[in-house]
Amino acid sequence: MKTSIKVIHWLPRIICILAILFIGLFAVDAFEPHLTIWQQIKNFLFHLIPTFILTVLLVIAWKWEYAGGIIFLLVGLGLSPFIFNLNYNRTHSTGTSMGGVLMVTFPFIVIGILFIISHFTKRRNLQTTSNG
Q1: Per-residue pLDDT tens over the stretch 76-120
Q2: Cα(35)–Cα(69) distance, integer angstroms
């Protein structure tokens, strides 16, 4: 496999793992001193549900790049208005809300596009190697 194809293959996977870890960091706010340890663990696991879902989506995208790319693209685009409204209702600032969208959902849009590019790059490479 050519180096450029290897990079295109691994780039969305690495970025996705990093983005999932970033989303997982938000679960740390489940730990509050006035709660029992069992309540904290329950809250922590509850806050990790988006991380678990994104991990399942990564497994799908790892196996089927095109389908995974579309799913990540839809997740990023679909969650953008929700994240924007959530931040805007808290801060009443368009700039801050757009920053939240860029930090949380934009990486998944990029990941989706990269998985789709990877799919078509490998497909084109297979066609050129089989033809000649």
Answers
A1: 999 999 999 999 999 999 999 999 999 999 999 999 999 999 999
A2: 40
